[in-house]
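Problem statement: downstream parser choked on a complex file, so we are re-checking the raw output for the erythose-4-phosphate run. The parser issue turned out to be on our end (a line-ending mismatch), but while we're here, posting the original submission so the record is complete.
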Amino acid sequence: MEIFLDTADISAIEKYKDFVDGVTTNPSILSRQKKKDVHDIVLKISRLVAGPVSVEVISGDFGGMVREGESLAKIHPNVCVKLPCTFDGLRACKTLSNKGIATNLTLCFSVPQAMMAAKCGATYVSPFIGRIDDIGQDGINLISDIVEVYGVYGFETKVLSASVRNINHFIQAAMAGTDAITVPEKVLEQVFTHPLTDIGLKKFMDDWNKSKGK
Ligand code: E4P
């Protein structure tokens, strides 16, 4: 399972670069950066990680998305062009995929959207777990359903669980068979900690230090 960091924060990426397979961003994440030069930020991130760096187009129409996607892809070979699961986004996905450009179909909230992304040659499809939970539905069910349907038809598009808000989402998405997951720094931190590990380590050290005094 690929693990991506859902951030454009360079210090967070530097801290976790040995553990993550790539990075995902979106316009909201990039808008939180002090320096707004997307080209510079994307290049910096791409030089830090070995795998895909998802960067979303801003255009809302097919032509604009294709032009923007082509220009983003020129920044670095690891750039994966993020497109919305809309009619124009799916058309742009097909065009960019045919040109060999990696794509990540974002804002996916249904199995049919995920199926169209796969049929248009998307590299990744990003179903949003947290935002589905926010409207009182079950985001993890969507991950399981897409994984199942992709398995039935042998689609090659990878399921990238997104909008991950807590460690339980991480565990359940992994159990549902997601191919990839993107997590904010606050969730990734939790992957490395467990209270019983801390308690156990303290006890080992206390016992060892006590024995030295004897
Ligand atoms: C990443 O690809 C998504 O844009 C991101 O995970 C969305 O997360 P949010 O729903 O917490 O904003």
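For whoever reads this later: Residues 140 and 172 are 7 Å apart (CA to CA).
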